[in-house]
Amino acid sequence: MRFHKLWTLLVVFTGAAAYDRPPPRENLVLSLAGDADPTIPQQVHISLVGKDRMRISWITDEHTPATVNYGTSPGKYEYSTNGTISSYQHLNYTSGEIHEVIIGPLDPSTEYYYRFATNSSPEYTFKTPPSKFPIKFAVSGDLGQTGWTKSTLEHISKSNYDVFLLPGDLSYADSVAPLWDSFGRLVEPLASKRPWMVTQGNHDSENIIAIPTTFIAYNARWHMPFDVSGSTSNLYYSFEISGVHVIMLGSYTDFRPGSNQYQWLESDLMKVDRSKTPWLVVLIHAPWYNSNYAHQGEIQSVGMMESMEGLLYKARVDVIFAGHVHAYERFHRVYNHEADRCGPVHITIGDGGNLHGLASNYTKPQPTISAFREASFGHGQFEVVNASHAKWSWHRNNDDESVQADSVSIISLAFDPACK
């Protein structure tokens, strides 16, 4: 059933007064000291693997064992697990040793302490997500590694989040391979403490004509649990946590009907039991709905929407997060370009802090399906309170202070009788 009435859900605005939009800031290229111990673990980050395991990834410049010692008390490591070591080459660049270890089973809502099997390893700590509601996701795309990125990360670190979702464009390394190392060092203080779940963007692809294979660094460094979800590609996958099913789609791999990604998405959606997993969230990079002049008409937006919007609408997806456009915009529930009570809430949040600056030119007048839009750097918080209700809030970086500029309560479509 189609609805031509505008459906807003308890929209609450705060702090939306006019202000001077911040300019871009210089890149923060974090390098190791020239005399640094080449066995020191660096670029540590963690990610979810199944319901009770965690993948721990790190890099060293020289060979060290792929071993993680861990436990629930500082300095006491009851468990030890071994993993794998890999590396890759890109033109004249050779990566360090990329270590990956999957640990678990782990208890929910528990603080774990871990270190690596080298004399130079410090102790790290992370907290596992809860097994039931409430759960909070921090969301920000197009991070890069600028002064604004640093500000965004500082605000995220204070948000008491459980899992970080990144809808593409991580390092903005493009073809400058060492910038992946710099990015890994920049995000380590957060990414080593909470799971980071990411999908790819256009700036994560090397995109060199002489090298047909793309996403070499991304796939090697940011290994997501694609195989656990039945996917054959690290560029699209899904995971479930605390009653939320999250689907990470690839805007820059084949999404046409009949493609591997399309067939996998069909299969994955059929497995979701909304009586047990009432929330269904999707991440893409290139937004399907966008009233900003930036990135209009791209095949990754228009073509992917044409191919997959019907699948997600039929599955009653609650929220779709996107990046790519360097600004913030939230839409009312929408399907096929019209307000629809049973459509997803589309949110563009490609404003983490990239070097290219903000996309501040919007079409006028503002479309009726667009609820809130503003060009500034910042991050979002998606707090799933219970099986039926969640709160979304967006926090702009205003003079390095985090200011909530937009918020809305969202009711899961699994609880809307009109959308059964």
Automatic annotation (TrEMBL):
Keywords: Glycoprotein, Hydrolase, Signal, Zinc. Residues 343-402 form the Purple acid phosphatase C-terminal domain. Its EC number is 3.1.3.2. Gene3D superfamilies: 3.60.21.10, Purple acid phosphatase-like, N-terminal. One of its GO terms (molecular function) is metal ion binding. Its cofactor is Zn(2+); Fe cation. It catalyses: a phosphate monoester + H2O = an alcohol + phosphate. Transmembrane segments: none annotated. Residues 1-18 form the signal peptide. Residues 41-128 form the Purple acid phosphatase N-terminal domain. Belongs to the metallophosphoesterase superfamily. Purple acid phosphatase family. This is Purple acid phosphatase.
